[in-house]
Amino acid sequence: MNFDKSLLSGSTRLLVLSVLERKDEYGWGIIQQLKERSDDTFDMREGTLYPVLHSLESDGMISSYEQDASAGRTRKYYHITDKGQRELARQKEQWEAFSGGVNRVIGQGAFA
Amino acid sequence: MNFDKSLLSGSTRLLVLSVLERKDEYGWGIIQQLKERSDDTFDMREGTLYPVLHSLESDGMISSYEQDASAGRTRKYYHITDKGQRELARQKEQWEAFSGGVNRVIGQGAFA
DNA sequence: TGACAAACCTCGATGTCCGAGGTATTATGT
DNA sequence: ACATAATACCTCGGACATCGAGGTTTGTCA
Predict the structure, then answer these.
(1) Which residue is nearest to nucleotide D10 (CA to C1')?
(2) Which residues of chain B are within 8 Å of residue A92 when distances are taken between CB atoms?
(3) Distance from CA of B94 to the nearest CA of A (A)
(4) CATH of B5-102, one of 1.20.1080.10, 1.10.1270.20, 1.10.10.10, 3.30.160.20
(5) Tens digits of residue pLDDT in B18-61
(6) What are the residues facing B64 on neighbouring strands?
(7) Across the interface, do B22 and A95 touch by the CB < 8 Å criterion?
């Protein structure tokens, strides 16, 4: 399923931080996890993810380290920082408020 | 509460059509309704609404007519068309899928 | 007369997403 | 041996959405 790409807008940071809250993960893996955890609803593009990862890192929300995978391929793992945890908590609150608001508005249809 | 404005992205059409599903409404009134119906969560700006209204109209999702208010001030009312109803249904589905996906992702935190 | 609210509008700055392109390594199939 | 696909990283530019700031008109109230 593909949405209006703009629906995703603003929630990418929330989504990425949520994945990293669970455990350290590398870019490619984050994309897989999002797909999996959302039951194939999300299919984040690399062109979206990598810039977001870099901006989260430069904001101090996550940190990174390199690590060789089984076959000698190098992966860049990301780890959520304390600051990132606080940011995640804030973004979750915003999401609750926002989605709650949308649900109240659309729930009051023609027959409400 | 003000969000990341970008969270709103992509959902403005859904929100506007939802208001019009109930009854014909004019621009200023739509803003009031959104505020009211969402328990003050949403505060859509005029600079956002008017361009959206014009684009919905040029896409045939809504139609407009002028009508004088009590005091002789003219209001431009918008009415949702059949096409707009179908669009609204589609956008509601997308919203369900999208918000469901986000909830699944953020619900599986560090202790899941 | 002045100030404010209702009601409409446009323009430009900013920020987000992603398609398209690039690089390199390893695995798979023929 | 060779081509293709998958893994894994990256950047750039175009497209699009939001909204702050600005503008206009009419009516109300002191």
Answers:
(1) A50
(2) 106
(3) 6
(4) 1.10.10.10
(5) 999 999 999 999 999 999 998 888 889 999 999 999 999 999 99
(6) B78
(7) no
